[in-house]
Specification:
422 residues; globular
Length: 422
């Protein structure tokens, strides 16, 4: 599987972009629907809950999805090893997901008080059922990713967003309070789980040795997953401590598009990750160079026209959503796009350390990046507000391209990192 022909990389990328397009469209329509129907404050609450959901889901998964994807890719040709590998991961994630959901239920009111937003606390209670199921689904999707069953992976991801969009629309049509829109996250996970179980038919029996390996790998990978999701949302989370829900709503409307632009490269990363595992283990620099440079070129080539199109078309939404919201978000997006332009080429390969079997060092790299991001946000938000958050985040994204290449050079022994493999 690691030696699959180049056209598989392109075809898998095409399927992944189909799922990404659906995700982006769903996200855009949801934000437009909420902003038009309930205003910027409701949009701010929804996006704060979403940010918390994605970050907490990493804790619920405990890095087990990363361990599953990496080890499935390594043992793809050894079915006797795959069965206990997958079964052990599912046993562990069921426990971690359930515990995380229980903790969120108990902490929801406290989080609402911390953010000075009762709506956030109530919204978090609506996502509790989805949190544990999301962790299980994340491991099942990682199985598909490790097996390079990208078409099935894309279909599963698409189903999640279709159900989420339909659920939010239905809740809105029923004229329920805006905070109940957050229930859509739970409904989507409930719908996705049986589909994945039928499609994968995973073994449920594990082994002590694989449980130990998953726990060790997951414990080292967890900080990376947790911080990687926080990395995209640290600005929104920190803004909630300094500004009101309406300003967070304006900023989060811009970051919706920025996150979509980031996903242009992350979509390619999903395809490249399992293909990198065997070459990295073997130290095959020629193969690593070929995959990395192809992925980096695809990431940058895809980002530029998409970002240009979004920046050009966003102002046209003003008649429907209000001049103040759209103008403010457009200014923020220009700033964020500058940082993403630098980072776009490296997003497809920024999990290289993880695929090389170095989850702890991958986590260390992400910890450095998020510390830089948080420090810059903390320095600029009090004086500049949402514009300060945008400048801080854009700068942090640009700096992460440098830290990635230095880490690859230092820990993988590739001179000049991903920029100069030879």
């Amino acid at each position: 599987m690691a030696d699959a022909p180049p056209h598989k990389l392109l075809s898998d990328t095409a399927y992944s972009y189909g799922a990404f397009a659906l995700m982006a469209l769903t996200g855009a329509l949801l934000n437009l629907f909420i902003a038009a129907g309930w205003g910027a404050a409701a949009l701010g609450v929804f996006n704060q809950v979403y940010a918390a959901f994605v970050v907490l889901a990493q804790l619920a998964a405990f890095g087990l999805h990363d361990s599953t994807q990496r080890h499935v890719a390594e043992h793809i040709d050894h079915p006797d090893e795959l069965r206990p590998l997958i079964g052990s991961a599912l046993q562990l994630v069921t426990i971690s997901g359930g515990l995380s959901a229980a903790v969120l239920w108990l902490a929801s009111d406290w989080i609402g008080q911390l953010t000075d937003s009762p709506g956030v606390g109530e919204g978090l209670r609506w996502i509790v059922p989805g949190l544990g199921l999301f962790a299980i689904n994340k491991v099942l999707l990682a199985v598909l990713n490790g097996q390079r069953r990208i078409r099935a992976l894309a279909l599963g991801q698409s189903l999640r967003f279709v159900v989420l969009g339909a659920s939010v629309l239905a809740i809105g049509v029923l004229d329920r309070p805006s905070v109940q829109l957050c229930a859509g996250f739970s409904i989507a996970e409930v719908a996705l789980l049986p589909v994945l179980l039928i499609g994968i038919r995973p073994p449920l029996r594990g082994s002590a040795s694989w449980r130990a390996r998953h726990l060790a790998f997951g414990a080292h990978a967890l900080p990376n997953g947790l911080l990687a999701e926080s990395y995209l949302r640290v600005d929104v989370l920190m803004l909630s401590l300094f500004v009101d829900d309406a300003q967070v709503g304006t900023y989060s409307f811009a970051t919706m598009f920025a996150e979509g632009l980031y996903q242009v490269g992350a979509t390619i990363r999903t395809v490249v990750n399992p293909a990198l595992v065997v070459p990295l283990i073997a130290g095959d620099r020629a193969k690593i160079r070929s995959l990395s440079r192809t992925a980096m070129a695809l990431g940058l080539a895809a980002f530029v026209p998409v970002a240009g199109g979004v920046l050009l078309l966003l102002p046209w939404l003003a008649p429907w959503l209000g001049e103040e919201l759209v103008t403010g978000a457009h200014e923020i997006l220009w700033i964020l796009s500058g940082g993403l332009l630098v980072y776009a080429a490296f997003v497809p390969v920024d999990h290289a350390l993880l695929q090389a079997g170095l989850p702890g060092r991958q986590s260390g790299l992400m910890a450095l990046n998020i510390c830089l991001n948080a420090a810059l946000n903390l320095a600029l938000i009090p004086g500049l507000g949402i514009e300060g958050a945008a400048f801080a985040t854009a700068t942090a994204w640009a700096l992460s391209a440098i830290t990635l290449n230095l880490a690859v050079w230092r820990w993988l022994g590739l001179p000049w990192g991903l920029l100069g493999i030879r």
